[in-house]
UniProtKB/TrEMBL annotation:
<dbReference type="GO" id="GO:0005829">
    <property type="term" value="C:cytosol"/>
</dbReference>
<feature type="domain" description="GCVT N-terminal">
    <location>
        <begin position="16"/>
        <end position="283"/>
    </location>
</feature>
<dbReference type="GO" id="GO:0005960">
    <property type="term" value="C:glycine cleavage complex"/>
</dbReference>
<feature type="domain" description="Aminomethyltransferase C-terminal">
    <location>
        <begin position="308"/>
        <end position="385"/>
    </location>
</feature>
<dbReference type="InterPro" id="IPR006222">
    <property type="entry name" value="GCVT_N"/>
</dbReference>
<dbReference type="InterPro" id="IPR027266">
    <property type="entry name" value="TrmE/GcvT-like"/>
</dbReference>
<dbReference type="Pfam" id="PF08669">
    <property type="entry name" value="GCV_T_C"/>
</dbReference>
<comment type="subunit">
    <text>The glycine cleavage system is composed of four proteins: P, T, L and H.</text>
</comment>
<dbReference type="InterPro" id="IPR028896">
    <property type="entry name" value="GcvT/YgfZ/DmdA"/>
</dbReference>
<dbReference type="Pfam" id="PF01571">
    <property type="entry name" value="GCV_T"/>
</dbReference>
<dbReference type="GO" id="GO:0019464">
    <property type="term" value="P:glycine decarboxylation via glycine cleavage system"/>
</dbReference>
<protein>
    <recommendedName>
        <fullName>Aminomethyltransferase</fullName>
        <ecNumber>2.1.2.10</ecNumber>
    </recommendedName>
</protein>
<comment type="function">
    <text>The glycine cleavage system catalyzes the degradation of glycine.</text>
</comment>
<dbReference type="GO" id="GO:0008483">
    <property type="term" value="F:transaminase activity"/>
</dbReference>
<dbReference type="GO" id="GO:0004047">
    <property type="term" value="F:aminomethyltransferase activity"/>
</dbReference>
<feature type="binding site">
    <location>
        <position position="216"/>
    </location>
    <ligand>
        <name>substrate</name>
    </ligand>
</feature>
<dbReference type="InterPro" id="IPR029043">
    <property type="entry name" value="GcvT/YgfZ_C"/>
</dbReference>
Length: 388
């Protein structure tokens, strides 16, 4: 039996909404979902993930299962990567692009069995991606491909931070310890978690969006509350705290990870966004966007209206924010996509699309901070990389 997502008017709530409210969360709208922005101090939540561990509800993300003997070949056609080459139990970051090469969404694809894949799109794009996959299935002629949108019935919980593995280990019986500790980055395994009410099936993945080690756990909605409580109990001795979207955003920015709607959009393309390596032009057969992406690459990788996504390090104390103008010699040369102070590094960081001629590392640029300019330096991404 599955439990559907709660919808109140136009507002969507995850299966864990009541738990967040009981913890005193401040909520915000994100992609039509009421999601925890923070529970107390967003700075404390950020630091917990960097130093101990943080617990996130990511149940607003989408989950679309693609199955059948032609599932791999279909995903090769529908997405820009070569998903048929992904081994069972592994995952791959990919993009779904339009015919003109514009990015519809970025997503993670897990190969959970020989003929079964799980596609995880972003929250605000989940319905769009599901519909686009269905349309492309018709174009592909995939009689040996089936799609199942499980987004409304699935919860996703993440544990991120240096203590994540020790916490997650406590959820599974001892005989599964090696499956947890041996799980590589961008891999997943199906296990049974042991809760007070009994065992529940979990797809355990070692992925994340924070720049730290961590795990994501996919479960049926009816099991989400028990799993959230079990993780919280297991994390008490490891200084685990619940974290909201504010901390998730500052963490992913430090890690140089793009956010759809900021760095990625229909107006951007993989090469301009620094994601050209995700596009498998060498794979056999046609795929949606191949012609446009080939032309973009031949025109010069990293060009989209002459712009490229870069990292910017502030030389002062004031932070750039989304849509602030980027200047060189007083002339407009780009626009900030994301920016804020870095709690870990102690200086402002930002990402921006700037004209290619001003995108080399070490280039100094000015950002117009509401009438006052501040100097930033172009630097390599990510800003922060954890010590392994």
């Amino acid at each position: 039996m599955t439990t559907e997502t709660t919808i109140t008017g136009t507002e969507k709530r995850t299966a864990l909404y009541d738990q967040h409210a009981a913890l005193g969360a401040s909520f915000t709208d994100f992609g039509g979902w009421q999601m925890p922005l923070k529970y107390g101090s967003e700075l404390a939540e950020h630091r917990a993930v960097r130093e101990t561990a943080g617990l996130f509800d990511l149940s607003h993300m989408g989950e679309v299962f693609v199955s059948g003997s032609d599932a791999g070949a279909f995903l090769d056609y529908a997405l820009v990567g070569k998903l048929s080459a992904v081994a069972v139990g592994k995952a791959k970051y990919s993009l779904i692009c339009a015919e003109d090469g514009g990015i519809i969404d970025d997503l993670i694809v897990y190969r959970v069995a020989e003929e079964d894949y799980l596609v995880v799109p972003n929250a605000g794009n989940a319905a769009t991606v599901a519909a686009e996959l269905e349309a492309r299935r018709g174009q592909f002629g995939g009689e040996a491909v089936s799609l199942r949108d499980a987004s409304a019935a699935t919860s996703l919980i993440a544990v991120q931070g240096p203590n994540a593995q020790e916490i997650v280990l406590q959820l599974f019986p001892a005989e599964h310890a090696e499956a947890v500790t041996g799980l590589k980055y961008y891999a997943a395994v199906e296990l049974e978690a042991q809760l007070e009410a009994g065992s529940i099936p979990v797809l355990l993945a070692r992925t994340g969006y924070t720049g730290e080690d961590g795990f994501e756990l996919f479960v049926d909605n009816q099991d989400a509350s028990g799993l959230w409580a079990a993780i919280g109990a297991a994390g008490e001795e490891h200084d685990l705290i619940p974290c909201g979207l504010a901390a998730r955003d500052s963490l992913r920015l430090e890690a140089g990870m793009p956010l759809y709607g900021n760095e990625l959009s229909r107006m951007s393309n993989p090469y301009a966004a620094g994601l050209g390596a995700v596009v498998a032009l060498s794979k056999e057969g046609d795929f949606v966007g191949r012609a446009a992406l080939t032309a973009l690459k031949e025109a010069g990788a990293g060009t989209s209206a002459g712009c490229r996504l870069v990292g910017l390090k502030g030389t002062g104390r004031r932070s750039a924010r989304g849509h602030y103008p980027v200047l060189k010699g007083g002339q407009l040369v780009g626009e900030i996509t994301s920016g804020q102070p870095s709690p870990t590094l102690g200086y402002p960081v930002a990402m921006a699309y700037v004209e290619v001629e001003h995108s080399e590392n070490g280039t100094t640029l000015d950002v117009d901070l509401r009438g006052r300019t501040e100097t930033f330096e172009v630097v390599a991404l990510p800003f922060y990389k954890r010590q392994k």
